[in-house]
Design brief:
Helix content: 25-40%
Bound molecules: adenosine-5'-diphosphate
Distance between the termini: 13 Å
Length: 395
């Protein structure tokens, strides 16, 4: 029998949803409710190549979930709420509670709530999403799919920081890692080629970016930390910096820690360096002679190279594949070229320039191998599919 599943990605002021039919993974409709509680809220639906946008006052997440359900019923995407067999939620933080996806019950809900201090921007919206669905569909099974759970296999020496141990034991200060659903999807794909014990370096480079070290098919290390701020130079996030900068700049500029945190998350990275955070804008600026844009591209490239180098050594050189994925990884031809050329001599890989030039969203191929056949490590581009993972887990 065909069953329908709803996938929800609730943000602080938005609610994205997709309705699927299983077992064939067919997307029937997707949509987004935006600017919830901001006065000028609206929602958009996409189905059969059509896009419909409507303005409507939407006060909170419950109101957004009701609007979603009314549309699904009114347009006969479903004829009755009971047709929806399950609802999958993307949840930022599973802390140390969860190393895989779980069916949401009261205890799970409370655990997610208790992790709000580690995901203050994400968890309130996500919890509101779960509560709203519980009210509308009290009998539907709901599943939480965490961004952190895939990284729970990291050994302690890789996830602890060298700070007082009590900060970990009593306050949960440790590396959790994020983008886990994407890293897991790519790892599953690689297992299909290399088997269960695959070793790989996965570069998920979107506006948020992280690199994972996969050893024997499991996460062994990853670049993001307690929060998604650590690691690589990102679109608007600084990545790893000397922690002393916070105290120093607060005194120099009279900023509070909250203000600095906001700047490090939203006004740093590529944006902080040259005023743009999209790699396409950066490339255009750089081509037009903007020195800071060129510098930002080099800094991003160097931060990627540093993590690849570190993980190459953590895997003792036994790397089946280096994979690029997410917005910039899948489409940033220039960035991939720069990274592969930078690691070429040390690792013994050479870029297949023609293959690389032809892989991007609007090119002949969306995935493929971009290293030459005689390279020591296979370098690939593989589009990620986090939604498919959430759907499968929920199913
Ligand atoms: P996130 O999910 O973290 O918001 P995405 O994975 O969607 O981010 O990636 C978005 C980023 O991908 C953009 O900011 C841009 O830098 C990059 N990107 C998208 N398309 C292209 C392209 N054609 N060429 C280069 N970079 C691109």
């Amino acid at each position: 029998m065909k069953e329908k599943y709803l996938i929800i990605n609730a943000g602080s002021s938005s609610l994205k949803f997709s309705l699927y039919e299983m077992p064939d993974n067919i997307e029937i409709v997707n949509g987004i409710v935006e600017k919830i509680g901001e006065g000028d809220s609206s929602y958009t639906l996409k189905f059969n190549g059509q896009k419909i946008k409507k303005s409507k006052e939407i006060l909170d997440h419950e109101c957004a979930a009701n609007v979603m359900m009314e549309e699904l019923l009114q347009d006969h995407f479903i004829n009755d709420i009971s047709e929806i067999a399950g609802v999958g939620h993307r949840i930022l933080h599973g802390g140390e509670f969860y190393d895989s996806s779980v069916l949401i019950d009261e205890e799970v809900f409370e655990n997610i709530k208790s992790l709000t201090k580690l995901g203050p921007l994400h968890h309130p919206g996500e919890l509101a999403g779960i509560s709203s669905i519980s009210k509308i569909m009290p009998n539907a099974s709901q599943v939480a799919v965490f961004d952190t759970s895939f990284h729970q296999t990291m050994p302690k020496e890789n996830y602890l920081y060298a700070v007082p141990y009590s900060w970990y034991a009593e306050n949960g200060v440790r590396k959790y890692g994020f983008h886990g659903t994407s890293h897991r999807y790519i790892t599953e794909r690689l297992k299909g080629v290399y088997g269960e014990n695959v070793n790989a370096i996965i570069c998920h480079i979107g506006s948020g970016a992280s690199i994972s070290c996969i050893k024997n098919g499991k996460c062994y290390d990853t670049s993001m930390g307690l929060t998604p701020l650590d690691g690589l130079v990102m679109g608007t996030r600084c990545g790893s910096i000397d922690p002393s900068i916070i105290d120093y700049i607060s005194k120099e500029r009279g900023l509070t820690i909250a203000e600095i945190n906001e700047i490090l998350n939203k006004k740093s990275g590529l944006l902080g360096m040259c005023g743009k955070n999209d790699f396409r804008d950066l490339t255009a600026l750089s081509n037009a002679g903007d020195k800071n844009a060129s510098l930002a591209i080099e800094m991003l490239k160097n931060s990627v190279v540093k993590y690849i180098a570190q993980y190459y050594f953590e895997l003792e050189g036994n790397v089946d594949s280096i994979v690029f994925t997410a917005g910039m990884g899948e489409n940033g031809i220039l960035m991939r070229e720069k990274v592969v050329n930078a690691i070429s001599g040390a690792i013994g890989v050479e870029l297949d320039k023609e293959a690389n030039d032809n892989i991007s969203r609007f090119k002949a191929n969306q995935e493929g191998i971009i290293s030459t056949p005689d390279s020591n490590v296979l370098v690939m581009v593989v589009p990620t599919n986090e939604e498919l993972m959430i759907l499968r887990d929920t199913h």
